[in-house]
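The material for today's practical consists of a large collection of protein records. There is nothing in a record beyond a sequence line and a structure line. As an example, a complete record with its sequence and its structure tokens follows:
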Amino acid sequence: MTKTKDKLLDKTGSARPYVERALTDEDLRQNVRNAFESAREVYNELIGGRGPIPVATRVATDKDIQERLKDAVEELRQAADRVQGKKDHGARNTMLLLTGIALGILFNPVSGSQTRKWLSDRLFGTSDDFTYQGGNSGGGPSSN
């Protein structure tokens, strides 16, 4: 007799990776649980025998309910990202931005050469050992 989990995986077809992730990823299940609990709390607090107009008014004015709705939506977003296998790229994007800014400063046509000289002086001292000489098209020093 096959397990319920195996039956579910057999019937999912193309959604199999998502279902497997949903069944095995504890963080995903926790995100879904948190979102469900937040939504249930908001629903129970809002509906309590009221009609649609008082409910809409309360949602529009009550900051606590708005905050809980935001939490529920964020938990659902995190769950959706985990199901789809998306990862956070914040650190990578920050590094790319800083690298772009540094390159822009170093290769700026107006102040780039001065900035590179200042940086070279700070890193290597005021020695001219690392200064580009240019114009030498030979294969190296000649001993004529």
Notes: The chain has a mean pLDDT of 75. Residues 10 and 144 are 81 Å apart (CA to CA).
